[in-house]
Amino acid sequence: MTISRRIAFATLAAPLALALSACGGGEEDGPVAALDPIEAPAGSLWTETVEITDSDGYLLGNPDAPIKLVEYASLTCPACANFSQTGERPLVEDYVSTGLVSYELRNQVHNIWDLALARLVRCSAPESFHPLSNQVWANLGQLQNQMGQSQPVLQAMGDVAEEERFVMVAQASGFLDFFASRGISNDQAVACLSDAESVIAIGDRSTEQSDELGINSTPTFILNGRVLEERSWPSLEPLLQNAGARPAEG
Q1: How far apart are CA 28 and CA 31, in angstroms?
Q2: CB 232 within 8 A of CB 88
Q3: pLDDT tens sequence for the chain (250 residues)
Q4: What is the dotted CATH code of the domain comprising 27-32+50-242?
Q5: Collapsed DSSP state (helix, strand, coil) of residue 70
Q6: SS3 for 238?
Q7: Which of 6, 163, 219, 248 is the most buried if burial means most Cβ atoms within 10 Å?
Q8: Where are the domains of the chain?
Q9: What is the pTM of this model?
Q10: What string of DSSP letters covers 97-150?
Q11: What are the DSSP calls for 76-103, one per residue?
Q12: What is the C-alpha to C-alpha distance for residues 154 and 10, in angstroms, rounded to an integer?
């Protein structure tokens, strides 16, 4: 049985644990000269350019950007929600917009709710992945309450078939209504969640990648292949600038 299946079928008796550890600064590379902005193709913007990577991450910006920032994040993680609310906008508007920095968001799965949410934010066009993830984080307090209230229902699921399990999680936790108000119909969401193999594959990739890279908490950032200790926007921005990025003018 895969780790994701163990998560999906585990007894959910313990209280929902969402807090994650913080960490300090890391060793910085020496600064390099500022790079010239790279224009997007005619009629497009880097801030609206999204592609799915081989790691099943959603890369926002110039796929050939010389400065590549990857974030491993959990959709049930308060520290990730904090970065979404404090760092995502300046990162995208000031740096991704220049074509010099790409921002790839990858899910790290911590629990059965994470699995359901990670599938639901993939249930529309790739361009919706980042906005929907930010909506989850912006409303995490409300969703946490609903997850906590769902535990008695989930504990009673027993041997429910895989194709029904994630639908029940979403129904009991209020996810279907949450995403319906954001453009994903109940029928669309149920179809996505009923494909249990695609849901479980997200968790398996999360486990494999986290083990390979030694990532054990979220958010964790990788800059040009180097795993960082920095977790906040004030500590990340200088590293982007040391790599040659500068805020967009105007």
Answers
A1: 9
A2: no
A3: 454 555 555 534 334 444 333 333 334 457 889 999 999 999 999 999 999 999 999 999 999 999 999 999 999 999 999 999 999 999 999 999 999 999 999 999 999 999 999 999 999 999 999 999 999 999 999 999 999 999 888 888 877 888 899 999 999 999 999 999 999 999 999 999 999 999 999 999 999 999 999 999 999 999 999 999 999 999 999 999 999 999 998 6
A4: 3.40.30.10
A5: strand
A6: helix
A7: 219
A8: 27-32+50-242
A9: 0.89
A10: GGTSEEEEEEE---SHHHHHHHHHTTSS-GGGHHHHHHHHHHTHHHHHHHHHHH
A11: T-HHHHHHHHHTHHHIIIIIGGGTSEEE
A12: 10
Which amino acid is residue 131, in one-letter code?
Answer: P
Q: Tell the residue number behind the tokens 């049985």, with chain if given.
A: 1
Q: How far apart are CA 240 and CA 91, in angstroms?
A: 10
**Per-residue tokens: 54:** 């081989």
Tokens for 240?
Answer: 């982007």
